[in-house]
Amino acid sequence: MIDFQPLELRHRAMIEAVVRPSERRNCDFSFMNLFSWRFHYDTEVALHEGWLLFRFKADGHLAYQLPLGGSDYRTVLDALLDDALRLGHPFLMLGVCEQELPAVESALPDHYFATDQRDYADYLYRREALATLSGKRLQAKRNFANRFERLYPDYEIVPLGPERFAECLRLETEWAKAKTITDSAGYADESRSMEAVFAHWTELDAQGIALLVDGRVVAFSYGTPINYDTFDVCMEKADTAYEGAYAAVCRAFARAVPTRFVYLNREEDLGIEGLRRAKLSYHPERLMRKFAIMAKHPFGV
To answer: Which helix (H) or strand (E) holds 5?
Structure first.
């Protein structure tokens, strides 16, 4: 039996010891994400026979992440199948990246359906590309960022810290009110996630910046490393009344992220049309496609 426990701050070292050296670049393994959204997913974690395991709820369904830590999935996937059966739930594994599918197929031959979940694909960018916004493809973004700097020549870029958190939450609230399509529950959850990050900023190894105009926060961004070469941009917000603020904060944060990180993961678009257009407009290095894995015979029938 797998000893799953509710995810807490004390699990950070255990999780990052497995994730940081790995090749997993998807935002699902960012501890900041895992911790700050645990209220939404009832996230649980276990270290089982050398494997790092996550169990959670997705729209009320019991689900698992692809195990991390070993090379042969056969035994550990059998254990997860047994866990789901014991709890009376059909087996569901989410966030399985495309390159992992052959290994899952080898472990569970002809045992599952894999469904592409485009809305949850991660957008992976070269850090250097966003730090410079150079080249013809990013010319429009570069123009926006440069326009912000021309319009607000006295702007400041400062490290994000506790003295700015209240302003960031204010900006988040104003941003949510300005949206034409209201999703009050979704925005409330996002604010709750932000509050969790701000309450545990140091413990989460959070890094961020704020853009100030006349001493006022007009944009901010923060995140944390996922693995050894990929940094997760967990949050980015800007006041659109300040022209070019989004492109400016994107470039500024890419410059602030340590250069040892090759990639920036700017997470999913969740199927939101405007967000998808915005993420594609920065020309990602690649989309990390994710799949849902469902057993063909979930109860062994």
So the answer is: strand 5-6
